[in-house]
Each structure stands twice: as C-alpha cells, then as structure tokens.
Automatic annotation (TrEMBL):
One function term, GO molecular function aspect: monooxygenase activity
Spans through the membrane: none
PROSITE patterns: ABM
Protein name: Quinol monooxygenase YgiN
Classification lineage: Bacteria, Pseudomonadati, Pseudomonadota, Betaproteobacteria, Burkholderiales
InterPro entries documented for this protein: ABM_dom, AI-2_Isomerase_LsrG, Dimeric_a/b-barrel
Alphabetized UniProt keyword annotations: Monooxygenase, Oxidoreductase
Gene Ontology CC terms: cytosol
Location of the ABM domain: 2-99
Keyword Oxidoreductase included in the entry's annotation: yes
Cross-referenced Pfam families: ABM
Length: 104
C-alpha cells in the first residue's frame, strides 16, 4: 500500500474555493481502480497555544492507494488534469509526500 499526504496551500482566502473543487472531484477519484482513501483535512479548531498548525490557507489531502501503479494512474487521470486546471490560479504551493509503511 502507498500513502500520500498532499499539502496544499492556497492564495490567501482561496482555501474554501479549492476545497469546493476538490469535493466536486472526490467521487471520481474514489471510483478509480486502487483508491482506498481520499479525503481532505484541515487544522482542528481551538488547539492549545504552541501546537503546530498549517494555517487558514492550507489543507491536507490524505490518500491511500493499493499500489504505486494505481497512484501513477491517478496522477494521469483526465479528471485530475481538469481539477488542476480549475484550481491552478488559486493554489500557491503543493507538496506531495508519497509514503510506504515501515516493515515490522
């Protein structure tokens, strides 16, 4: 299994707009062969002072895929190209972390 944490930071005030586009695209991603999990998360509300946060313009996409090949196919899917084009001007940075479980 492959896991992905995609850290998406939008231009100021655009997170809700990008999340709306993400949610419109989510069903298509969940229907992809090999998709186990695909959802967005944001900082929890009312965290104690000193706890780390990503901030008001950032969300994280948590993904699980059956294989690296399934993830590669996802990256090339037409609906992902459409989502990227739709959100391009609203996204400031995107960091995609591809992870695998530790044996043991």
């Amino acid at each position: 299994m492959i896991q992905v944490l995609a850290i998406i930071t939008t231009h100021p005030g655009k997170r809700a707009d990008v999340l709306a586009a993400f949610n419109e695209n989510r069903a298509a991603v969940l229907a992809e062969t090999g998709c186990i999990e695909y959802g967005a998360v944001v900082d929890a509300a009312n965290l104690p002072a000193g706890w780390a946060t990503f901030g008001a313009d950032t969300f994280i996409v948590v993904e699980k895929w059956e294989s690296f090949d399934a993830l590669k196919a996802h990256a090339k899917a037409p609906h992902m190209a459409a989502y990227a084009a739709k959100t391009k001007e609203m996204v400031a940075t995107r960091a995609i972390h591809v992870l695998e479980p530790v044996a043991g």
